């Protein structure tokens, strides 16, 4: 999915990690998957705020947190995870994550119920628009002097 020179986020499989910080991430990843299954939005939000790399950690079945949220039809958590991913990734990377297959050849978009699938598609379009508006804002901001003497 990524090339050596790309700026794509890397997806981590928690079974191949080492070192003390990786052990903590591995432990946190177990807890985030459990929190998602229990539909504990506040706990998931806290985990992601403390360690954004958990967005892209995989479980033993190669599921990302968004896979589990979609599979369990936890719409609020799924949309939160996608929003956090979109702030760290390009739109193309977001789409690749949504289409990433687990060991059972299921992607988050295919695991989502029809209502959530529509929400995910809308979320991607909103992400595209946000990025476009931010680019336009940055371009215009450079044209306006910041201080007037």
UniProtKB/TrEMBL annotation:
Domain of life: Eukaryota
SUPFAM superfamilies: Ankyrin repeat (SSF48403)
InterPro entries: Ankyrin_rpt-contain_sf
Low complexity biased stretches: 10-22
Source species taxonomy: Eukaryota, Discoba, Heterolobosea, Tetramitia, Eutetramitia
Region of interest: Disordered: 1-22
Organism: Naegleria gruberi (Amoeba)
Protein name: Predicted protein
